[in-house]
Amino acid sequence: MSVLDELKASVLATRVIASVDQGMIELFKLNKDQRCIGILTADCDDVTYVAIDEATKAANVDVVYARSFYAGAAHSSGPLSGEVIAILAGPGPADVRAGLQRAREVIEHEAAFKSANEDGSLAFFAHLVSATGSYLSKEGGIARGEAMAYLIAPPLEAMFGMDAALKAADVKVATFFAPPSETNYGGGYLTGSQAACSAACDAFQQAVLDVAGMPIDI
Q1: pLDDT of residue 103
Q2: Contact indicator for 149, 190 with CB cutoff of 8 Å
Q3: Counting Cβ atoms within 10 Å, is residue 189 exposed (0-12), middle (13-18) or buried (19+)?
Q4: DSSP labels for 39-71?
Q5: What percent of the chain has pLDDT over 90?
Q6: What is the reported pLDDT for 218?
Q7: CA distances from 137 to 50, 146, 147, 208 (A)
């Protein structure tokens, strides 16, 4: 492995419930058009959050539940649990399956953490979302279709990187993840123009690489 190699994630399990029980409808506060749900687990939470946002752009679905598990995939409760669970809801199975399929494509082939060192033990996520769907728009408190820099790293690297990203581009903090998150990382969502968000991602990446290359620098 080399620095900046992608660390690909995997979908671990999926299920579609074609006609969800009324009790589940009430628990997840589904609307009258959401009779079907799709459930997904994967071994990387932030990649999955980007993926389910993409699902809302590709299919007639909404994200009705998404949550990271504590401590990360290495400490999951079972072999199919991973690091995150997400639930999509839509009018019928075709919509939900299309959403799950798009999410899987993003998880396994598009968005990815990268290695900041030679053995892959220090990983970070600096991902440009060119235009948000309904999920990340809601999570970030921004309008649908805005650009976003989705920045995540281990605690110190994340704070150093967020500062570098904010200084490097005309962006603002939409959501801040103070360390430690459920998975012991930190970071946030930055918003601005697509070009500014791209520059913020580059600055965050370089900051994380600087820490990885010289951890003790007073």
Answers
A1: 98
A2: yes
A3: buried
A4: EEEES-HHHHHHHHHHHHHHSS-EEEEEEEPTT
A5: 95
A6: 78
A7: 11, 8, 10, 26
Mean pLDDT, rounded, for 144-163: 98
Nearest by Cα to 68 from 149, 134, 152:
152
CB 218 within 8 A of CB 167: no
Q: What is the C-alpha separation between 169 and 114, in angstroms, rounded?
A: 22
Q: Measure the CA–CA gap between 172 and 155, rounded to whole angstroms.
A: 20
Domains and CATH numbers, the chain: 9-112 (3.30.70.1710), 115-213 (3.30.70.1710)
Helices vs strands, H then E, count in the chain: 6, 10
Cα-based distances in Å from 161 to 34, 137, 201: 40, 22, 9
Average pLDDT, integer, range 33-52? 97
| Dihedral pair phi/psi, residue 205, rounded to 5° | -60, -45
- Over the chain, what is the mean pLDDT? 97
